[in-house]
Amino acid sequence: MDRSDIPGGRQAFQPHDLVIALGLLTRLPLPAQAFAASCSRPPAQAAWAYPLVGLVVAVTAVLVAWLLGGLGLPAPVQAMFVIAVTVVLTGAMHEDGLADCADGFWGGWTRERRLEIMKDSQIGTYGVIALVLSLVLRWQLITMLIDAGALTAALIPAAMVSRAAMVWTMARLPQARDKGLSRQTGIPAPPALMGAVAIGLCAALFTAGWFATILVSILLTFATGLLARAKIAGQTGDVLGATQQIVEIGCLLSISAFALS
Questions:
Q1: Of 90, 218, 84, 88, which is closest to residue 142 (Cα–Cα)?
Q2: Which listed residue, 59, 104, 173, 226, has the most CB atoms within 10 A of its CB?
Q3: 158 burial type by CB count under 10 A (0-12 exposed, 13-18 middle, 19+ buried)
Q4: How many CB atoms lie within 10 A of CB 125?
């Protein structure tokens, strides 16, 4: 089914979409059945709910931070558990995408070789460096936000906006592989894309320095997409994961700059 099979957006938004999105982007034991062969509606049409998945993940992490704070644990320890919760809930799929893109984009000289490296389950030097830098940066930013009492107002919008960025990349970049998770999921129709972007924008409006947060998110989304187009001529599931990580860090940086000033 392609976009033309969804006339007037009649099937654009369904309550079950959140379950499909959670089943795809988290490791929660949900009966999503997103890729059932009998399903007449592509899983990508549930992409409008991706920012809501970010909401679920971030709220869970914030609740853990509140609990640990109530027990008197210091901010650095709370921040470590916040990251651990997000990693456990998502199965580290976004971190894995970031590492694979770092290895593939800079470890191969041709498009074919880059895609081959990205598919390899082993992690290379570029991937390790990307993961270490991203995790340390997130840990430091979250620690500062906890100390400032601004974790909720930063982590939740960042998680939602970064997943809206994934949907934009899904819709605007061609698929680089003939197989894989991104190919199975499909391409979001315009209503799904607009829904995800609208939810992401609404979340961003509640942040400190909301204009800067939106601008940074747009720039990083486009920059990551341009890089993926130049390196592999499109997007894969790894590219979507890398987009989420990069945009989330950008949002946290932007929000921190205003919230901590």
A1: 84
A2: 104
A3: buried
A4: 11
79 in any annotated domain = yes
CA distance 81 to 84: 5
DSSP string, 10-43: TTS--TTHHHHHHHHHS-------TT-TT-SS-G
Cβ-based neighbours of 107, under 8 Å, separated by 6 or more: 114, 117, 124, 126
Number of domains observed in the structure of the chain: 1
And the tokens for 173? 């970049």
> Is 176 a member of any domain?
yes
Q: What is the DSSP string of 157-172?
A: HHHHHHHHHHHHHHHH
Q: Is the Cβ–Cβ distance between 26 and 159 less than 8 Å?
A: no
User: pLDDT tens, 113-125?
Assistant: 999 999 998 999 9
Q: Is residue 95 part of a domain?
A: yes
Angle (CA) 40-46-47 rounded to 5° is 135
Q: Is 5 domain-assigned?
A: no
Note the pTM of the prediction, 2 decimals: 0.92
Q: CA-CA distance, 66 to 83, in Å (whole number)? A: 14
Domain extent for 64: 15-30+48-259
